[in-house]
């Protein structure tokens, strides 16, 4: 009788365990099903959102929205502007869509876009640069100009006098204000005692459209600073990695811009300067002497090389205190991507072709061969 009771007890326990296993399996199955449903719902929601973001924000709208694309804008900034103006639903999706279609080279300008435009129509507009609002006038500031020369350009194209422009860009309170407005571009480095003009080299050289007859000096300066800020922001990760400041970058780039000729190799010239800096050898670049003298000369004399000035790279090792002119994007990129060479010398012949040398003897040979 006792054996029968034990058998019954064992049978009951086995039955209970089987029931527990079935319950666990049922719970696991429910959890798995719920998880699959969640994944499916999230996936469908994501798909629906992306699909919706690829469509016009308002297919029925014909209202024109004025959209300004600043000079030098990259796809990230353009996408953000379009989202802010309600032209696209999501900046990231528009950005990835343009990259998927391998679209680039968008044009700066003022566009009258509508919320009923498709992404392809928006891309085509930005690529062709169709400006719906024609500027009243344009002002071209070439690369390699000093701040005084930029002031002359402003005087020729507007009603403002060059001296009024210079007075504004050298006003201490105004410069301090600009430092707070452009913290990623301007720093306290431009206020150092040996800096000739704080904003030298910071006004980006380009052709600017203006949509009123007489823009203020402040508007002109803001327009050029914004363009430079946009250009420089593209290289922020590289600058952080190399622990290089924007001030150092624009100073270096300005030397390349002033040494450049029609056929010059900026990357190789950059390598010469970097090689000299590495061994504490003066850069000995003539444009810094001319900037130190404050005058233009067709030929730098030996006596000029001895001028006592912090910008004179014949007398001082390393970079000058700040930029000596406005550098274009080509020179800025060359400063960040120099060629890898052992050159320490270079000269430009009468046709503007540069000749490089590793030793001073080789350099003397080039002088005799190409200049004398």
TrEMBL record:
Keywords on record:
Cell membrane, Cell wall biogenesis/degradation, Lyase, Membrane, Transmembrane, Transmembrane helix
Q: Does the keyword Transmembrane apply?
A: yes
The protein's predominant localisation is: membrane
Q: Where are the transmembrane segments?
A: 27-50
Q: What is its EC number?
A: 4.2.2.29
EC main class here is lyase
Q: Where is this site: Important for catalytic activity?
A: 259
Localized where? Cell membrane
Q: Which family does it belong to?
A: Belongs to the transglycosylase MltG family.
- Annotated PANTHER family: ENDOLYTIC MUREIN TRANSGLYCOSYLASE (PTHR30518)
Q: What this chain does, per the record?
A: Functions as a peptidoglycan terminase that cleaves nascent peptidoglycan strands endolytically to terminate their elongation.
How is this protein named in the record? Answer: Endolytic murein transglycosylase
- What does the organism's lineage look like at the top? Bacteria, Bacillati, Bacillota, Bacilli, Bacillales
């Amino acid at each position: 009788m006792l054996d029968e009771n034990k058998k019954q007890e064992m049978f009951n326990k086995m039955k209970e365990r089987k029931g527990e296993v079935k319950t666990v399996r049922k719970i696991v199955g429910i959890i798995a099903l719920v998880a699959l449903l969640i994944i499916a719902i999230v996936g469908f929601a994501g798909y629906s959102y992306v699909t919706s973001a690829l469509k016009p924000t308002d297919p029925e709208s014909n209202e024109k929205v004025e959209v300004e694309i600043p000079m030098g804008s990259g796809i990230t900034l353009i996408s953000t502007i379009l989202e802010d103006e309600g032209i696209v639903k999501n900046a990231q999706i528009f950005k990835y869509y343009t990259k998927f279609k391998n679209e680039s080279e968008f044009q700066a300008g003022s566009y009258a876009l509508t919320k009923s435009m498709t992404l392809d129509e928006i891309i085509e507009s930005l690529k062709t640069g169709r400006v719906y609002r024609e500027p009243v006038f344009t002002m071209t500031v070439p690369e390699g100009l000093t701040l005084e020369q930029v002031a002359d350009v402003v005087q020729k194209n507007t009603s403002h006098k060059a001296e009024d422009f210079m007075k504004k860009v050298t006003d201490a309170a105004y410069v301090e204000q600009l430092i707070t407005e452009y913290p990623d571009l301007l720093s306290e480095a431009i206020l150092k005692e040996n800096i000739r003009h704080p904003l030298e080299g910071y006004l980006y050289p380009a052709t600017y459209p203006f949509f009123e007859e007489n823009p203020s000096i402040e508007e002109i300066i803001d327009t050029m600073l914004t363009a430079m800020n946009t250009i420089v922001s593209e290289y922020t990760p590289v600058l952080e990695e190399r622990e290089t400041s924007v001030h150092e970058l624009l100073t270096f780039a300005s030397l390349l811009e002033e040494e450049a000729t029609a056929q010059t190799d900026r990357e190789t010239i950059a390598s010469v300067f970097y090689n000299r800096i590495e061994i504490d050898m003066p850069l000995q670049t003539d444009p810094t002497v001319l900037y130190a003298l404050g005058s233009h000369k067709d030929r730098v004399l030996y006596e000029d090389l001895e001028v006592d000035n912090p910008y004179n790279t014949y007398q001082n090792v390393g970079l000058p205190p700040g930029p000596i002119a406005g550098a274009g994007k080509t020179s800025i990129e060359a400063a960040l991507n120099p060629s890898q060479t052992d050159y320490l010398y270079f000269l430009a012949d009468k046709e503007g072709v540069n000749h490089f040398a590793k030793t001073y003897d080789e350099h003397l040979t080039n002088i005799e061969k190409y200049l004398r």
